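[stage:ingest] chain + small molecule (PRP)
[stage:ingest] validated
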Amino acid sequence: MDTAPAFPTLSITRHPLIQHKLTILRDRRTPTKIFKELVDEIAMLMAYEATSGLQLEAVPVETPLEPATGWQVSGKKLTLVPILRAGLGMVEGILRLVPGARVGHIGLYRDHDTLEPVDYYFKVPSDAAERDFFVLDPMLATGGSAAAAVTSLKRAGATRIRFLCLVAAPEGVRRLAKAHPDVPVYCASLDRELNTHGYILPGLGDAGDRLFGTR
Ligand code: PRP
Ligand code: URA
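[stage:predict] done
[stage:export] tokens:
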């Protein structure tokens, strides 16, 4: 995993399989079915790295031969929080890796003119202060949606929050870090910039539309 000095909260996952799959995801000719499968697979592979800092606790285990000491992830179940809609595409892949995880939901969409987030839904487990949260969204563009999602989670009591995306723009990483410097951000690529409509360049287009075939 790489870090960039200008972006202290950011880790970039350079695993060859992730980079290979991300390139197919970017391709405008990739159909909805394959796009969905790739988002799912990349999210799972990224979650493997993004969970490497979780705390463990020692537990006794009886092997067929003798009692031993093993390890388990400590604390309450992890909570995945997809930002609707596109974040939904990342949930199933991560659940294959962490099947016991809880799933909250944050509904936000970007106003087409102002590019600012408009929120319409929020539901996470009530004991938020005791859980590790992974906010999921394939795209970190202006950072407005990500920052608003984290603000809502903190208002609900969450203190341990990580943000997982596939493609990030420098503008979004900076905005999220300024609003929430305590939130580590994981991405598969730090792209060049935003265009005048707030789309990431080179990016992969509108993630929600490509995932759900609503273009
Ligand atoms: C996209 C994307 C993020 C947001 C990123 O969602 O999935 O949530 O834009 O942009 P930002 O960093 O500038 O806030 P969109 O608002 O298009 O909603 P959708 O998932 O319902 O299509
Ligand atoms: N949302 C997307 O889905 N794609 C972008 O490039 C920017 C915001």
